[in-house]
Each structure stands twice: as C-alpha cells, then as structure tokens.
UniProtKB/TrEMBL annotation:
Keywords: Membrane, Repeat, Transmembrane, Transmembrane helix, WD repeat. Pfam families: WD40. The keyword Transmembrane applies. Residues 63-73 have a biased composition (Basic residues). Residues 43-84 are annotated as: Disordered. This is Anaphase-promoting complex subunit 4 WD40 domain-containing protein. PROSITE patterns: WD_REPEATS_1, WD_REPEATS_2, WD_REPEATS_REGION.
Amino acid sequence: MAASLVSSLTLPLISAVLGAAIALVFLAGYLRRKRAAIAHIPPSATTAAPDQPKHVRPSNQAQHRKGHPRPHHNAADKDAAKKHHHLDVNTLRGHTDSVTALHFSNDGANLSTVCADGAVRIFRIDDTSSKSFKILRINLPAGAHPTGVAFSEGSSSVVVAAQALLGSSLYMYADVSAPPTAQNKQQGKLSPPEIKWSHQKIHGKESVLNLAAAHATHGPGDGSTIIISCSEATDIKVWHGKSGKELGTVDTNQLKNNMADISPNGRFIAAAAFTADVKVWEIVYSKDSSVKEVNKVMQLKGHKSAVTCLCFAPNSEQIITASKDGSIRVWNINVRYHLDEDPKTLRVLPIPLHDSKGSICQYDHMSISPDGKVLAVTSESTLQWLCVETGAVLDTAEKAHEGHITGIAWAPRKIPNGGVPAFILGTAGVDKKVKLWLAPQVGST
C-alpha cells in the first residue's frame, strides 16, 4: 500500500517539476530578448529630457544647455547678411508685392512708390540712414494695378498710372506730402487723400510703361508740372500735372515703345522704341505759359539696334542712350534744328557689363545723377554706376535686388545720410523692396 501511495505522488510531482523547468526556460528566453531590445535603443533617445514627449528628440544636447539656445535668424539678421555692398544705405519696407515704380519729390524729402498690391506709398525721407520712416498709404480703386507714379506740384500731389481690364487710367491725389503726426492724430482721424482728377482708357486698352515729370521752365513756361505717359503701343501723351488737362499726343510709329522721358526743363520729349533711331519732340509754350503744340524736331541716328533706355542730362541739352548693339551714346541736342542742324554724337561708350558667358548685357533702366557725373544703369538684378564723361565703371552691385530691378530714380538734390548731405539713388524690385544707395565717388574704383 505504501508503494502504491509513493507511486501515485511521484507522477504529479514529476509533472510539476517538468512544468516549472519549462516555464523557467521560456522566462529566461524572454528576458534575453528584452535585454537585447534595450541594448539597441539609440543613446540619444535614452537621454531625452523628462519633460519632453518621447517623439521630440534634441539633435544636439549642447544646444539645450543654459546660455546656448538654438540658433535662429530674425529679419534684422537677414538684412545685415544681405546688405553686402558698401553703397547700400537702407531698405524701405512695407510693400506686399512687386514694386513697379518710384519717384522722388523735388526737395528729395518724399519718395513715392507704387506696388502690385494696388497701393501708393509716400515715404518721408528726413535722413536716409533712419531706422524707420513715416509712411502714407493710399489704396487705388479696386482692380487698378499701378504701373507708374510721378510727383506733381512739388511734393503735395502724385499722379498714378494704373492698368485695369478696360485699359489704363490716370489718378491725381492731392495733399500727400504730410504723413499723420502725433499732433494731428489727436485732432481726429485724417481722411485719406482724395482723387482730384482722373482719366480712363488714356491709351485705349494698352498699358502705361512709365510716367515722367518735369517743370516747364523753358521759355515762357510758368514752372507747372508737365507729365508724360508712355504707352506700350506707339503713342505718348502730355498732361498738365495740376489740372489734368491733356496737352498733346505724339506717335513714335515704331511698332512699340520701350520707354520715354522728358527733359528737366519741360522742353523736349524723347522715346526709346523698337528701332535704332530715337525721335525727339519739342513742347512749344505760348506767351501765356500754356502749351501751344508738340512738334517733332529731330532724330538721333547712330545705333545699329533697338534703344532699350535713355535719359536726359540735368542741363536738358544732352541725351544718353543705351542700345542692344552694346553701346552707350551721349548726344548733344542743343542745336539749331530749325536750320536743319543735326544733333551730334559726343561720345560712344561700350556697355561694360557682361554675363557669365561673356556676352554684353542689355541695360533695362538708366538715370543720371543731379550733378551730371554719375550714370546709374541696371540689367536684371545688377546695378552699376558709370562715369558719364569716360564710361568707366565706378562700382557694381550684383544681385542688388532678389530678382529684376523694376525702376530707378535719383533724389533731385543732396539729402541727409547720417546728417551728411549726399546724392542718393533709389531702386525698386520684384522682391517687394525699395533700396537707397549712395553715389560713388567719380574716379574711384
């Protein structure tokens, strides 16, 4: 009986021992796999900060030490990095789209700009080195896309050319020279400048390439502002800045225009168009200072290809032209054209700017400094300064803007830069910026 009892107890005991052994084997295998998995977790993951979610992992622990924050770049840092040229003075901000044109007032204290966002902005330039500027913003009528701007009657009003579905319009805004100040803000909210006059479809359905303005000081001219609007087709219209009266129309008859300019004394109009020849018209004033007529008086012949841009010298007696033929020409137009005396070529200068392949670049815009010594020219995003007398390159700013330069304009007189009067050039670009530049010293390299 005892043997039977032992036999009955042995079988369950053996089964229990075998079961425990098997369980120990499985447990040991599980623990080995767990240790292997832990061993292959990246070290950076095991050192994550306890207050961070597990999916946020610092890429560099040193960046999280006290006094060593992650590097960041704000707008000021970027501006400092991009202000790479020694003539770069300042950047005027506030535009939300491509800046299409700009123009200084007579005293240089105000700069008007127009932008593809449909707004006109008047910047008060007390000193070009200022960290901030007073700005007056004027919203154009809905659907109007500005293409040109010019001050009229000093700095008190601006004329804006804008393109819409039905064609180009002109708008004149008065009382734009004084942005709101703390004193007049206390007197109540100022009303925005109103449209004093406007004209619709001034060039049919064609857009305006550029506006140019001058003061009628030649002959019996009374100093009134004369404005020209250059169509992308072949016509150019002459306007009285204050009244908005249309004073005349000329036609280049050259397939299409590239741009047009008016002499500083309001006497001549010149157009760069599709062909190599430049046509010049004279605005004839009556004794009562009104415009009597606009007559074609001369033609500048010498270029071998289309003239892309031109400008008048400050004395209104010379015209500077740039052509696709790779040359710049300086012309004397102070001739007795009524006696069939032809304008004379004073100088022929090679365009000194070349692309990476060695080909001559085409100039898009040009403007001469108020003292007549420095010619500013642009080609796509490059800005260059040339000596008017010799054609020597005074300085070059490659990638002056992040994209094409859309317009340039000199302040008509010296204005303060850090308290020191200086000649200042303004440039506008598709990068939503207007930049201010010092004039280089003539003779420097």
